[in-house]
UniProtKB/TrEMBL annotation:
Transfers the 4'-phosphopantetheine moiety from coenzyme A to a Ser of acyl-carrier-protein. The gene is acpS. It comes from Sedimentibacter hydroxybenzoicus DSM 7310. It holds the Pfam family ACPS. Residues 4-92 form the 4'-phosphopantetheinyl transferase domain. This is Holo-[acyl-carrier-protein] synthase. Its main location: cytoplasm. Keywords: Cytoplasm, Fatty acid biosynthesis, Fatty acid metabolism, Lipid biosynthesis, Lipid metabolism, Magnesium, Metal-binding, Transferase. One of its GO terms (biological process) is fatty acid biosynthetic process. It comes from the Bacteria. Its cofactor is Mg(2+).
Amino acid sequence: MIKGVGTDITEVERIKNNLQNDRFIKKIYSENEVDYLNKRKFNYQTAAGMFAAKEAVSKSLGTGFSNFGPCDIEILKDESDKPCVNLLNNALILANNLGITNIQVSISHTVDLAIAFCVAESN
């Protein structure tokens, strides 16, 4: 059963400019995500796609970033190189309280824009 959906579009240039700021990186990306971005040489489109996905997931939870921050939503890759969502801390508690057991996310980008769409599901 679908419990929520979310979408977001982000300008790659905005993320590119903010990636020069360590405070921004620590506020937005978890250590696991920073490790992944390092492997990708901090590709701007990848970072923007991850940012858009975090926003989309927060919207699918029905709250936006209320009572949790961007680092509580990890956007990683599974063994098939498909984007996957890992919730932490208050985002995980909220999802559990809502009965959300699975979150699907799709990310796409051009040179200028990154977009993500998310579906939060329950059993």
